[in-house]
């Protein structure tokens, strides 16, 4: 797993099952975005880069039978293989994609690009895309205008350290115009509905830098989350919780390099 951040190596290796259970899916409206904006259809070859346990892969597979999942963490890939046994799964990183040049019509990255937002990664994505190919970046972003969601952020943020995160915006710095057009955003509201265990405890214990914590600190985070569930008026006594997200989808067009 050379080139994979330590938090991802440790956290995603140990918490792959929790990740599969607790991470939200994606709004169905994204299928229209994938088709209209990224131009994905039944004839497209699509690479899901940093595919993880296959949450987003499953959605893309409804549009594109020719789908290749690239994932460097073996334990995450094992979850994907169980979920989607018919999808081709290869071991690789964004800087070293084991596929031929100009072999894909689109590359998609869901909950992943902030891990590898470098010029080297964009150069490699550029290489595997056909001349008129598209890059799609997707994140489920917590709606922190809801007070209990903001409270969860306060619980986990002290452990963040140097872990790459979407919310910092640093991922945008890689887009200099050399390989791709500037990201163009479309936003969809989404609610992850399930038990408090699934949508809060499992979800946040699967955050890379929380999953990588020593057991006593992880237990402390879990206890804080359970206290929030047991005491907040919007959560207390509820068997089902609707966790609010804004799903941000960014489309980038491959640009021809200057001679």
From TrEMBL:
GO terms for molecular function: S-adenosylmethionine-dependent methyltransferase activity. InterPro entries: Diverse_substrate_MTase (IPR051052), Methyltransf_11 (IPR013216), SAM-dependent_MTases_sf (IPR029063). Residues 48-135 form the Methyltransferase type domain. One of its GO terms (biological process) is methylation. It holds the Pfam family Methyltransf_11. Signal peptide: none annotated. Keywords: Methyltransferase, Transferase. It comes from the Bacteria. Belongs to the methyltransferase superfamily. This is Methyltransferase domain-containing protein. It comes from Pseudomonas trivialis.
